[in-house]
Amino acid sequence: MSLSIGIVGLPNVGKSTLFNALSNAQNAESANYPFCTIEPNQAIVPVPDKRVDALAEIVSPERIQAATVTFVDIAGLVRGASKGEGLGNQFLGNIRSTNAILQVVRCFEDENVVHVDGDIDPIRDLETIELELALADLDSVQRRIEKLEKQVKGNRSLQAELDEATKLAAHFDEGKPFSTYADKGSEQAQGLAQELGLLTAKSMIYCANVDEDGIGSDNDHVGRLKEYAAARDIEVIKVCAKAEEDLAGLSDAEKFELLEMYGAEHSGLEQVIRKGYDILGYISYFTAGVKEVRAWTVEEGSSAPQAAGVIHTDFERGFIRAEVTAYDAYVDNGGEAGAKAAGQLRVEGKEYIVKDGDVMHFRFNV
After folding, report:
1. Measured distance CA(283)–CA(345) in Å, rounded
2. What are the DSSP calls for 323-365, one per residue?
């Protein structure tokens, strides 16, 4: 399991610049005109986690493997995208399989950078994008309805799904997202959301793209965005995409110095990943041995066998027990042997619920 995030927004709001910075590579061309991203860009990026480095210092493994996050950047969406306007609609399918959506919103003034609607209005921009996502979901549900209407004649058990899909289509037709659908918690609605990869059913993060002056304190655009997001219970992060480019390739010490100069605590990458993990309920556990120190991503509340299954299905199928040490205890005692001698290594069974930072070794038999 790994975190995957689709990046959306209007053209020319800094999506590709941010993608370049997040991926630490200039893979997505960025330019001062709409539709400069004409193919979906994808990057798999290591998750910054100092705990991995600390474990590696103790174990001295042959290799180190951080957890990863996949970013998918698509062409900018415009008003009418669901009807074929612009280029972004062609690539919406590329983000249907992602876990969450990062919506980049322009929150800076610059007369040298054009805006497709002529002026800066983050709320209007958000509403434009979210309408197009809802209408794209409407198209997906309508195609499912057409299929179900044919199938239900020979299988009446599909009637409940057809009824739910019909109600959901009416909801999307009003430009409303899945998150406001009255029966979104029903088994039928959840099934449709998962099977169709409904875009408005995904966890959403708003990303306010500001200029350098906006990093330390919120400008009026960011203030409006945060009010709008709070009313919808959506998380907001604030980044300066151009400044993030300056961070690319720097050492940790240099990054810290530059962030401090800007008045920021964390880089955009760290902010995006932290919010992504939080809203999706993800945690990390570790395996540490001479061959490899590695971080693994699981959902909070996962049992020990489920966590083992992330490594390999055989580990879950033949799970016997897990040897577990809390991260702090592992580091404080200089590794597994020291933790065991201090009575900090525990043997846990199938009912154990994995905690963030657990260092684990699985015993299994297949």
Report:
1. 20
2. EEE-HHHHHHTTSHHHHHHTT--EEE-TTPBP-TT-EEEEEE-
- Per-residue pLDDT at 332: 97
- Beta bridge mates, 363: 321
Three-state DSSP at 240 gives coil
**For 257, which DSSP code?**
H
What CA–CA distance (Å, rounded) separates 105 from 87?
18
DSSP bridge pairs for 4: 70
Instruction: Please choose, from the candidates 54, 57, 60, 14, the residue with its C-alpha nearest in 3D space to the C-alpha of residue 37.
Output: 14
- Please give the order of strands across the beta sheet that includes 319-325: 63-65, 292-299, 282-288, 359-364, 319-325, 346-348
| Three-state DSSP state, 275 | helix
Phi, psi (rounded to 5 degrees) for 292: -160, 140
Largest Cα separation within the chain, whole Å, is 68
Residue reference for tokens 């540490």: 288
Half-sphere exposure of 166 (CA within 13 A, CB side): 9
Report, as an integer, the average pLDDT of 314-340. 97
DSSP 238: E
- Dig out the tokens for 261 from the structure: 């100069």
For range 96-106, the mean pLDDT: 92
Tell which residue, 17, 3, 15, has the closest CA to residue 48. 3
The predicted structure's pLDDT at residue 38: 47
Q: What are the structure tokens assigned to 331, written together?
A: 């580091």
Main-chain dihedrals φ then ψ at residue 75, nearest 5 degrees: -60, 150
pLDDT at 40: 63
Cβ neighbours of residue 13 closer than 8 Å, sequence gap 6 or more:
76, 104, 105, 106, 115, 125, 209
Cα–Cα distance for residue pair 213/107, rounded to 1 Å: 11
DSSP state letter for 197:
T
Rg (alpha carbons) of the chain, rounded to whole number: 23
Going by pLDDT thresholds of 50, 70 and 90, the confidence category of residue 297 is very high
Beta pairing, strands 319-325 & 359-364: antiparallel
